[in-house]
Amino acid sequence: MLSNYIYIVNFKSNWQLIPPVILKLEEPERRHHTCIEFTVRGFPHPTLRWLYKGQEIQSPYIRTEMDNYQDYLEGCLTFENPTHYDNGNYTLVATNPLGSVSKTVFGHFLEAPPFLDEEDPTPGNDANRPEEDSFGMSIAVGLAGFGCVFLIVMFVLINKYGRRNKFGMKGPVAVISGEEDSASPLHHVNHGIVTPCALDAGPDAVVIGMSRFPVLENPQYFRHGHTCNKPTTHVQHVNRRDIVLKRELGEGAFGKVFLAECYNLSPTKDKMLVAVKTLKDPTMAARKDFQREAELLTNLQHEHIVKFYGVCVDGDPLIMVFEYMKHGDLNKFLRAHGPDSTILVDGHPMQSSGELGLSQMLHVATQIAAGMVYLSSQHFVHRDLATRNCLVGNGLLVKIGDFGMSRDIYSMDYYRVGGHTMLPIRWMPPESIMYRKFSTESDVWSFGVIMWEIFTYGKQPWFQLSNNEVIECITQGRVLDRPRLCPKEVYDLMLGCWQREPQQRLNIKDIQKVLYALGKATPVYLDILG
Ligand code: ADP
């Protein structure tokens, strides 16, 4: 005890006043480092300020993390997913009563991608970003101008000589593993509103309205291949008078989605609950394509793919009848079962009770993987796998539930290119973003993002970044961080899905097996913090 006391007194008496000195301020290592390391000596401990382009940094995505020692401070200016907008000089100013010193270091995080000149619908993000220099802007404007002229010339030529359809899609579009599709309009948008494009398209147009990816001329399903050994697919027709609408479930992009009672659908039940999706005022072409999409859906049957019962095409609107999934889409479900969720009880917000646990998250992921194993066995490439496109039924039953109907409410998840096409870039691998290449392997990448969504209770991937910044991060090799609650084993699976080379990615069968085994293992064995 006494020796302790004497030690402390001696220690104290050794303290002297020291003016601030910046001993270390290190450039972050490009691409890999998201931190500027520093060591500052001084007593009393100096206060630190960081300047970027002469302004004090005030961003929730940049923060100082440090440890205090006897007469020095050691730490990091830490950046959350920095991009080329963050490149530049950073000045550290250290001040104590004996003086003030400063030092500057250049932070270089990512290269500016050469092709970023698209409009960006994500609000708020760019406002936080430093402005591009005007020289760079002039070049960008010049290039954009040249690009516009080029596009107009191309558009005229395509319309004149090569027109397959209004939106420049190639003929049979590949959705077979490994094949390239340079078109791939997932969603078409008209003045910011997602519309069924075939309604105003020519007779050869692909109906994007009912089909986000072009299934119509997919040789897989309509000419040869596994399910197409049958010469024709028999789509079940449902009588309009057998459908009794009960209430609206949601607004789809092309019409409302209703909960309905359907009579004479099942041989064992007189009536059953179904979800019906409607398409109003279709053209002849839209009707034809609607029929073909129904054939596709009829051919996709699996316990983790939402069940398609049939169509009602006599009269207007056209209707597709699906099994009813009580809890709606998985994204909404995850958000409603996360730590931040509140529910309204008598008009007052209350903390919601049922937070999803680890084994439930694994169960959800395993089921989606099972649906994907089936899709890949059919050589079917989905292209838009995300939690918003999965549905949740009773007993945490999860199915892949959307094969082509886009949504208004999730339009923020899509990136508009060229005014028409909407791409879910936050779920897309580099080769899909850069070359519009979609494959079973690109679906695996999206599955990695789905796992990330599940373990963050439905957060939007890269939520802190604008669409342009997301493109930059993904194409330059950055991947999403490990969610706080995610076991290392699961994050390793995500990393296996996010290998840059498509062939190096895990295969969905193996992923499903590992997820299943992890779900069976006692959660104690999972390394939640490691
Ligand atoms: P669209 O694809 O035409 O945009 P959606 O599939 O997005 O339509 O459906 C809109 C909403 O309706 C979804 O958010 C979902 O909650 C609900 N919904 C869609 N299909 C079903 C279903 N089979 N069972 C229950 N709810 C559904």
UniProtKB/TrEMBL annotation:
Binding sites annotated in the UniProt record for Mg(2+): N389, D402
Record keywords: ATP-binding, Developmental protein, Differentiation, Disulfide bond, Glycoprotein, Kinase, Leucine-rich repeat, Magnesium, Membrane, Metal-binding, Neurogenesis, Nucleotide-binding, Phosphoprotein, Receptor, Repeat, Signal, Transferase, Transmembrane, Transmembrane helix, Tyrosine-protein kinase
Enzyme class, broadest EC rank: transferase
Membrane topology according to the record: Single-pass type I membrane protein
One GO biological process term: cellular response to nerve growth factor stimulus
Keyword Transmembrane tagged: yes
Active site: residue positions: D384 (proton acceptor)
GO cellular component, one term: plasma membrane
InterPro entries assigned to the protein according to its UniProt record, in alphabetical order: Ig-like_dom_sf, Ig-like_fold, Ig_I-set, Kinase-like_dom_sf, Prot_kinase_dom, Protein_kinase_ATP_BS, RTK, Ser-Thr/Tyr_kinase_cat_dom
Family per similarity comment: Belongs to the protein kinase superfamily. Tyr protein kinase family. Insulin receptor subfamily.
Protein name, as recorded: Tyrosine-protein kinase receptor
Taxonomy of the source species: Eukaryota, Metazoa, Chordata, Craniata, Vertebrata
Compartment annotation: Endosome membrane
Domain (Protein kinase) ranges: 243-525
